[in-house]
Amino acid sequence: MRAEDPRPVRLSEYRPSDFLIDEVHLDFRLDPNATQVTARLRMRPNPAGDAGAALKLDGDELKLVSVAIDGAKLDAEALDVSPESLVIANPPRGAFELEIVTEIDPEANTRLMGLYRSNRSYCTQCEAEGFRRITYFLDRPDVLAVYTTRIEGPADECPLLLSNGEMIENGPAGEGRHYAVWRDPWPKPSYLFALVAGDLGVVEDRFVTMSGRDVALKVFVEHGQEHRALHAMESIKASMKWDEEAFGREYDLGVFMVVAVSHFNMGAMENKGLNVFNDKYVLASPETATDGDYANIEAIIAHEYFHNWTGDRITCRDWFQLCLKEGLTVFRDQEFTSDRRSRPVKRIQDVRNLRALQFAEDAGPLAHPVRPQIYHEINNFYTPTVYEKGAEVIRMLKTWIGEDAFRAGMDLYFDRHDGQACTIEQFVACFAETSGRDLTQWMRWYDQAGTPEVTVRTAYDADAKTFAVETQQITRPTPGQPEKRPVVIPMTLGLVGPDGADMPLIVGGAPAEPVFTLAEETTRIVFENVAERPVPSLFRNFSAPVKLDSDVSDEDLLFLAGHDSDPFNRWQAVQTVALRHLVAAAAAVREGRETPVDPRLAEAVGRAFDPEERDCAFAAQVASLPSEGDIAREIAQDVDPDAIHRARDDLKRALRARLADALSAAYARLAYDGPYSPDAASAGHRSLRIAALDLLAAGGDAEGLALAMTLYKSAENMTDRVMSMQVLSLHAGAEREEALADFAGRYGHDPLLMDKWFLIQASAPLPDAVDRVEGLMASPAFDMRNPNRVRSLIGAFGSGNPTQFNRPDGRGYALVAGVAAELNSTNPQVAARLLGAFRTWRALEPNRRGRAETALRGLAGMPNLSPDVRDIVRRALS
Ligand code: PHE
Ligand code: ZN
């Protein structure tokens, strides 16, 4: 039987809680299958709530043992209890203490929400609604309480007993058991609660805050992995320092802890004082981690640490406001990385990522606003739109109101709202105040889904010496939002003269700032005193998350590629020219025609390998062509992934043919030795060398493959080893098999390294991919219970292998849908995430579209569909 759709949650129906909880005392008696949790809650009616309302507490798969109010046990008749809720019809009208005892089974918890076991440890995950799997509670972010947590467990199995805040007491508890009591003085919502118990190794250090307070830093990992926690520790110290310098934010407890666990649904979690991490984002050593791993760890450690102020000290009123903490914290971690590494390169990477994930989401059936107005399952809203577009909106705000008003607004926000659960309106009001601007229209960025498309047409009048820039913006309809209104788009612009220098911007007889506001459907800007025809450099530094269609010619773009003072647009210019070519070439492939490659495009790409090029990381970005996903999005409808792949492959081969000497020379020149260092400059150097190798091996060129094989065998660091294996894996043949077998032989014991091996095979665009993935699912290194394994194999196949996932015979769809069906009951969150692979299915050509739909309809008809999977399938099909 199919369960009825439960009622959705709507922002417009928000009401304050009828009760508040000031203090929470938790007492955990740990046991693998029967952990007892006693919760004593100091409660009172909320003056802002409904006087006389019943007390309704949230639960999820809970087993109630007992309930008492002010020490008096309630009998069954006074209660309305189910695994999903506990209702007390007539609670006291003043303050009271509610004591609830529940029993939970951590071993059986395969969803990894609430209290569960990972390897031999106990750990918790409570965001968004996991706390209700531990005890009945007002499990909503606007109920803030001070927590005291007593944990009791076996001393041998769990020498370590951790929770939020600081430890205030510990000792033996008899029969080989011991206990610890933790107290967190900062009021927090239940989703920030955490507990970890187990036998782990630790790396310790300290940090002295700007006001001179000493903070103990601890990173917990499995025994024997301590040497892989040093980079995470360095990243914590760097993050703490940066938040003091950049935002004036100081850490506020005597201890800050990070725990790495192997079973985790997401990347990491910002629980107050006790961040819990997916071990993939903690563990790194030169022997086991790539440059990308080092960079990710640094960024995610920073992200979770920054949540201490943007998330923990100031939290969200309700889950619709998720971007209040996530968009802002992503913005902050992006800034941190920009300051530590290369700002332009970070910007390029972030924009690539935004387009690949968020633009794709915004263009399909799962599109939703940065602040959704309705949801069925909140777990499905931890999305690129909430995170990455949420961060873009803040970056854009900073561009629009200027650095000083932005910083003042942040200070005001921290000052005014510390200790509160807030809304986007309260956040934006701070910037309206410090900038003096009306931000009413600005709110559309939060409420309107879809990527605005901006068309720019330009005209130079040589007689009048004027240059006119006309813009038009449209946002296409998205689910539930048929009509769109114009948004406030800041366009940072430059006019580049024939000598490559920026020309002065004169508008209305006066010098103009480079940030122009496009707030209407159309805008016209006329620049004066323009002595010669300029080349416009539009949306410098990607000043707004829009899709740009301009009449700037390829020739002018390639001029910008060589001259623009804005590095982002130097990169973008090459990308745009390449993308125009690839779209045309993909269409030509379908008609059996060929499209010649413009030699000037090859030349622009070739410049990345020029011996004069100093910034390798930037050059590597220039040399990396638009992805197949980028091309598909540009085509937008009737998409044929095979034609796209073929067009891109042809371009790579043409580039190889034209640039062979320069590529070989660069590959040789960029060879290096000496000890491994993951710093940005060294990583950039390696990435440029790999970009050369990738082009040299285009079309399975024998010489290129031989070079890749040599690099694979002689690699002295994991980046070279993985990246050379990846290059080899794109081309069927003996080299590919040799490298893959060698890698498994060397690293078969290390699950995180086997994840790389899974991912590379799952994303190889070869016809045997489905068979391979099926074979690998049966291999001993694979484990359906571990989200990292599932994502590396099935997730990578679905989202990173466009030709094979979208096989015309539908086998790719069936594979991913089949795994999602299997995970539907054991881990619905991971199942739902896998289905993200279907977010662009409607853009496909009719045969594939039909097959994708069949796979989705098959899932929709399954019995016992979890709310997570049902929500995605229903929206994908709507
Ligand atoms: N709040 C976490 C972060 O972005 C993400 C997360 C969400 C983790 C839900 C677990 C569960 O930092
Ligand atoms: Zn976050």
From TrEMBL:
One of its GO terms (molecular function) is aminopeptidase activity. It is an enzyme of class 3 (hydrolase). Residues 554-877 form the Peptidase M1 alanyl aminopeptidase C-terminal domain. Residues 232-444 form the Peptidase M1 membrane alanine aminopeptidase domain. Its cofactor is Zn(2+). Its EC number is 3.4.11.2. Keywords: Aminopeptidase, Hydrolase, Metal-binding, Metalloprotease, Protease, Zinc. InterPro entries: Aminopeptidase_N-like_N, Aminopeptidase_N-like_N_sf, PepN_Ig-like_sf, Peptidase_M1, Peptidase_M1_dom, Peptidase_M1_pepN, Peptidase_M1_pepN_C, Peptidase_M1_pepN_C_sf. Residues 26-192 form the Aminopeptidase N-like N-terminal domain. It catalyses: Release of an N-terminal amino acid, Xaa-|-Yaa- from a peptide, amide or arylamide. Xaa is preferably Ala, but may be most amino acids including Pro (slow action). When a terminal hydrophobic residue is followed by a prolyl residue, the two may be released as an intact Xaa-Pro dipeptide. Residues 450-550 form the Peptidase M1 alanyl aminopeptidase Ig-like fold domain. Pfam families: DUF3458 (PF11940), DUF3458_C (PF17432), Peptidase_M1 (PF01433), Peptidase_M1_N (PF17900). This is Aminopeptidase N. It comes from Chelatococcus sambhunathii.
